Each structure stands twice: as structure tokens, then as C-alpha cells.
Amino acid sequence: MGILNITPDSFSDGGRFLDPAVAIAHAADMAKAGADILDIGAESTRPYGGPVPVTANEEKARLEPVLPAVIKLGVPLSIDTIKASIAAWALDQGAAIVNDVWGLQRDPDMATLVARRGVPVIVMHNRESADEAIDIIADVIAFFSRSLEIAARAGIPRENIVLDPGIGFGKTPDQSIACIARLGEFKRFGLPLLVGASRKRFISTVTPSSPDERIGGSISAHLLAVEKGAAIVRVHDVKETVQALRVAAAIEAAR
Ligand code: HH2
Questions:
Q1: CATH number, position 248
Q2: What is the rounded CA–CA span in Å between residue 253 and residue 248?
Q3: Chain segment 72-95, per-residue pLDDT in tens
Q4: Number of folded domains in the chain?
Q5: Which of 2, 90, 138, 191 could bridge across to 95 with cysteines, CB 3.0–4.6 Å?
Q6: C-alpha to C-alpha distances, 98 to 73, 114, 162, 198, 252, nearest whole angstrom
Q7: Residue 2 predicted with pLDDT over 90
Q8: Is 46 helix (H, G, I), strand (E, B) or coil?
Q9: Active-site residue flag, 234
Q10: By alpha-carbon position, which residue is closest to atom 11 of ligand 1?
Q11: 17: pLDDT confidence band, cut at 50, 70 and 90?
């Protein structure tokens, strides 16, 4: 899954793709580099700065000049939003997946929308703030259980749900690392798992680095995530990640 942030303030690439032509060209590059899904977002979740909320109008105004052109690339598009109204608009335009970083637990209309449209949804774990004293794996499992109850009540079929532990969201760096190390524990739900470790801060606690110096760390995290059962990885650096995953798969196949 390739990341397309049309935001002035995303933590690693804020402002780079605000120009619609540049954003569309970047999406085309990621498709060519082998992305199977593109994930478009117009409100930064800013896992490390505290979100600067945008109104639905502003979010839609950022998406409007870009999203229809990205749909035309023919790669399934997921819409990264916590607002049901924005998700509905993006699905109307042809988006195929909803990516909710509050796991159906923020906007009360999100679960009904996803159920009605019959689309897949990414349910991501989140917390208002990190607490180093908690057992993060138990917290993620309890959160997924709540989200799955909400989904079931709304009528979302289980096979349309992907679970994501939300690397960097309401977690200390050590807790983010634990979520990847113990990814297998989230397999108990029998659902596909997504991991988004791209350029995130926990990498710099292991090897001090600015976001765009974290490509090696991101690839390492995603390779291990796939080995531990991730079906999807959400990345900024599609070309490098596809190469790493294909080489790993070739080595595995030759065992
Ligand atoms: N991470 C970010 C945003 N959306 N969605 C899912 N499902 N999983 C993630 O780990 C995830 C996500 C944060 O990364 P980024 O998009 O680069 O930054 P920002 O939210 O600041 O735009």
C-alpha cells in the first residue's frame, strides 16, 4: 500500500504533495513501482504532533483535484479519513476501501456507511495518548474486539475487515516495536493484518534519524512484519519496499 498524503503537515512528507499535479505524478510513480493499493489522506493524523483537525469541507477541497485522477490509474484506492462524510464522497468517486485510524470508534456513522457500501475497511488501533504502564498487546486486542462488535452490529461482513495495530499511535516507541514483534498475537481474530511502520519515530529511537533517513529501518520493520503475518504494509517508499519483499520472497521460495 503506497501512501499519498495531500496535507501541509504530515510528519514525514507534509507539504510535498499539496500541488495536485505533483500528487498525481507521485501516485502514478507508486503504481508503476508495484503498489497494489494506494492510500490517500488529506487530514494528517500526525501521530507525533497531535492532530491539527481540518473541517470536512477543507478535507474534501484537498481531495477534489487529486482523487478522481488517482482513481483513473486503476489501482484500488483506500481513503484515509475518520469522517464518514468524506469516506462516502470518496467511495462515490470510485475509492474501494475505507481506512479508519479510529477503528470505527470515532464517527458514529462510519460503520453504517461501510456496511451499506459493502466495502473493505481497515480498522486501526488508536489511543488518545501513550501510557507506558499498560500492556499494549492486551489494549490492542480489547480495542479490536470493540471495533468488531461495532462492525457486527452494523452488518459489516467479517471478510471485509483488515486489522492494524496502528504503529506510533498512542504508543511509546517500545510499544510500537512490541506490536510488530508480537504481531502473531493479533492473528487470533482470523483476519488479515496491516502494518504501517513507514518512517515512524520508533525507528529513530533505535538509530537516530530524521523521517527521510528512515528507509532502511522502515524496510526492516516491514519485512519482519510480513514474516510475522502482515498481509499489507503501508509505505512511503514503494519501489524500495517492493524490491525488498520480492527478494525476501525469492529467498524463502528457494529454501
Ligand atoms: N499511519 C499514518 C496514517 N494513516 N493508517 C493506517 N491504517 N495505519 C497506519 O499506520 C497509518 C495510517 C501516519 O503516517 P503518515 O500518513 O505518513 O502521516 P500523517 O498521518 O501525518 O499524514
A1: 3.20.20.20
A2: 9
A3: 999 999 999 999 999 999 999 999
A4: 1
A5: 90
A6: 18, 7, 10, 19, 32
A7: yes
A8: coil
A9: yes
A10: 196
A11: confident
In this structure, which residue's CA is closest to atom 18 in ligand 1?
A: 10
Question: Which domain does 156 fall in, by range?
Answer: 2-254
Q: Is residue 48 predicted with pLDDT exceeding 80?
A: no
Q: What is the pLDDT of residue 49?
A: 65
Is residue 177 within 8 Å of 169, Cβ to Cβ? no
Ligand 1 centroid–CA 255 distance in Å is 35
Q: For the chain, what is the mean pLDDT? A: 96
Q: Kindly list the protein residues whose Cβ atom lies closer than 6 A to any atom of ligand 1.
A: 3, 5, 7, 10-12, 41, 44-47, 80, 99, 101, 122, 124, 164, 166-167, 194, 196, 234
Catalytic residue among 60, 62, 117, 234: 234
pLDDT in tens, 117-173: 999 999 999 999 999 999 999 999 999 999 999 999 999 999 999 999 999 999 999
**Selection from 45, 48, 64 nearest residue 7 by Cα:** 45
Does the active-site annotation cover 127?
no
Mean local confidence (pLDDT), 93-122: 98
Q: How far away, in angstroms, is 47 Cα from ligand 1 center?
A: 8
Say whether pLDDT at 50 is over 80: no
List the end-to-end C-alpha distance of the chain, in Å, as a whole number: 27
- Closest CA to ligand 1's atom 3: 45
